[in-house]
Design goal:
This protein starts with a helix and ends with a helix. α1 packs antiparallel against α2 and α4 runs parallel beside α5. α7 links the parallel β3 and β4. It is built from 9 helices and 5 strands; from the N terminus they run ααααβαβαβαβαβα. Bound molecules: cobalamin (B12). Cobalamin binds next to α3, α4, α5, β3 and β4.
Length: 218
């Protein structure tokens, strides 16, 4: 098998949710010297994008989306330690959660992996996080940054609801708030009162560091 065969196989097997094949191909690719970035950005993410497009066209339904997502998550478990390999000291604490009403966690998990790789201490609150959960985590962990993820246009308004609740609890000044997720835009992030937004995990890390540096120098 060539690296191209691996990428093609990963793309196709993720699309049909064949988790064992995706694991096998991921391991094989790594053994052949392919980088975790190649596997992620040239096969797994494009495959999930196509899954989303098929769902939109009515060719795929929730079960197909679910098994494709599970296949991708399995590969991420293998890639996690490789993507997160770091000797860096802790640069800051990041609390991250998917908002209430939303169960999408693959994008959030990817951001967490990259943040860990960049030296952040990440506390993952999981999915379906109500405002109280974010507030309790801020009180307990005193993070530098709180990240909120939403993948549905119907759950994006939870950003504003969370930010209002954090404000009401008197904690807004203590944290930088970042938002993200497939349907989120910079305009939306600004409108809901977030401090930062990023469209992908690599940009999220860069933005987090910039916001933290600006806060510390202020
Ligand atoms: C897999 C999937 C599912 C899986 C989720 C599995 C899981 N464990 O996450 C399941 C099957 C559960 C699911 C369910 C549903 N889904 Co769905 N799902 C998807 C799919 C195909 C992929 C999402 C994904 O993981 N992408 C991969 C990651 C890597 O995406 P990414 O955006 O590149 O992530 C980056 C950025 O967003 C950013 N980021 C993410 N979070 C954060 C946070 C911060 C702070 C920052 C800075 C950055 C950041 O960094 C990430 C990494 O680079 C998308 C299609 C799509 N194109 O998004 C639909 C999609 C999101 N789902 C959709 C829908 C409609 C649903 C359902 C309502 C379907 C239904 N009728 O039941 C339910 C809702 C369930 C719920 N209450 O949440 C729609 C949403 C439409 C909309 N505009 O609202 C989409 C867009 C499909 C479509 N094209 O119609 N889904």
């Amino acid at each position: 098998m060539t690296p191209d065969d691996i990428l093609k196989g990963l793309y196709e097997e993720t699309m049909v949710g064949n988790a064992p094949a995706v694991l096998e191909l991921t391991n094989q690719g790594l053994q052949m010297g392919m980088t975790p970035d190649d596997i992620l950005f040239e096969a797994l993410i494009p495959s999930l994008e196509e899954v989303g497009a098929r769902f939109e066209r009515g060719d795929y339904f929730v079960p197909e989306m679910l098994i494709a997502g599970k296949a991708m998550s399995g590969a991420l478990d293998i890639l996690r330690p490789l993507l997160a390999q770091t000797g860096a000291e802790t640069v800051g604490t990041f609390v991250m959660g998917t908002v209430k009403g939303d169960v999408h966690d693959i994008g959030k998990n990817l951001v967490n992996i990259m943040l860990e790789g960049a030296g952040f201490h990440v506390i993952d609150l999981g999915v379906q996080c109500p405002p109280e959960k974010f507030i309790a985590a801020i009180e307990e962990h005193k993070p530098d940054i709180v990240g909120m993820s939403a993948f549905l246009t119907t759950t994006m308004p939870m950003f504003k609801a969370n930010i209002n609740a954090i404000e009401k609890a008197g904690l807004r000044d203590q944290v930088i708030i970042m938002v993200g997720g497939a349907p989120v835009t910079q305009e939306y992030a600004t409108a809901c009162g977030a401090d930062g937004y990023a469209a992908d995990a690599a940009t999220a890390v860069r933005r987090a560091k910039e916001l933290l540096a600006a806060r510390r120098s202020a």
